[in-house]
Amino acid sequence: MAIYDKLNKTMLDRDVEAYLELLHEDAVFVFHKSGNKFSKSKWASMVTDMMTNEKFIQDTSRCIYENDEILVTHDFMSYPDVTKEAVMGVAMLKDGKIIRMETGATQLCV
Q1: Strand 70-78 vs strand 84-94: parallel, antiparallel, or unpaired?
Q2: Model pTM?
Q3: Residue 109 pLDDT exceeds 90
């Protein structure tokens, strides 16, 4: 199963443990807008909060491109504050896991 399929399933199932298993121990997460960088442990705390909040919703997701080195996704997300965003994610892969993920988001008018 491709990493995209595994990642998408963890999001739909809200399975934090399975999600974290897809991350390399040296993983780094970068938010394009702010430039903030997070280690796997810091990201684990943030993603746990997101996935346990029923108002954090992945409305749709699609894989733009995937091979053994990179995964590019595009998602529509809804957030607890009732905002919505289109989110582009680019993940660099190492040993079958995500080693670096960068996201860029565009707020959508509702």
Answers
A1: antiparallel
A2: 0.90
A3: no
